[in-house]
Amino acid sequence: MHRLGLDLVWALDLSKSMARAHGELRPSKLDAAREAVALGSSRILDKPGGRAALVGFHDRAFPLLPPTQNYKSLLETLSMLKAVGEGSAAGDGVVEAVKLVRRSGREKRVVVVSDGGFNAGIPLPLAAIYARNSGVSIHFIIVGDPPGEGLKRLLDEAIESTGGSWTHVGRAEDLARAVREVLPPEAKTV
Fold it and tell me: DSSP labels for the chain?
């Protein structure tokens, strides 16, 4: 099957815990995530056929920006995001992200950037089934404290069925590296 490019949807955790700093992730985990998403998106949008989209989630999820090649629009949307809600419904974020790209005919990836604590909404394993059946790989970047054993099992189960990945980061340089690692090989260099 010939693919027309890449659709990458960033699903960003907008729960209030993301407003806190963690080590070098300052002034907040969300600010560090926005910076990393901007960098990763510039590399995607610099390649022919690359599109990026945004979904936000806390105790529910909502599409913020449909797939676009407009980097300025993506940056404007990122700049408006604030940590506003309680809870963390990553499964809902995955489902909303998949809905944005499921019929695109392109390579499709969802990258969830969160500090974990998934405690609301659609269970992650069910969201992963929907992603798999829609041809979408899921990748997770967990920022801040290392995930506990329960979250590690959830992440492993979610990525196993979609061919995705997960990583934990506690420093800004590790976050930039993690973003580069979820990009396809042709987008890892500028």
Answer: -----EEEEEEEE-BGGGGS-BTTB-S-HHHHHHHHHHHHHHHHHTSTT-EEEEEEESSSEEEEEEEES-HHHHHHHHHH----BSS--HHHHHHHHHHHHTTSSSEEEEEEEE-----SSS-HHHHHHHHHHTTEEEEEEEESSPP-HHHHHHHHHHHHHHT-EEEEE-SHHHHHHHHHHHS-GGGS--
The residue range of the domain holding 128 is 1-7+19-137
The pLDDT averaged over each successive group of 10 residues in the chain (190 residues) is 78 96 88 94 91 97 97 97 93 98 93 93 95 97 94 94 94 90 71
Which CATH number do you get for residue 64?
3.40.50.410
Tell me whether residue 157 is in a domain: no
Q: What is the pLDDT of residue 82?
A: 95
β-bridge pairing 6-13 and 51-57: parallel
Domain assignment present for residue 111? The answer is yes
Give a yes or no: residue 153 inside a domain: no
pLDDT at 1: 40
Whole-model pTM over 0.70: yes
Domain count of the chain? 1
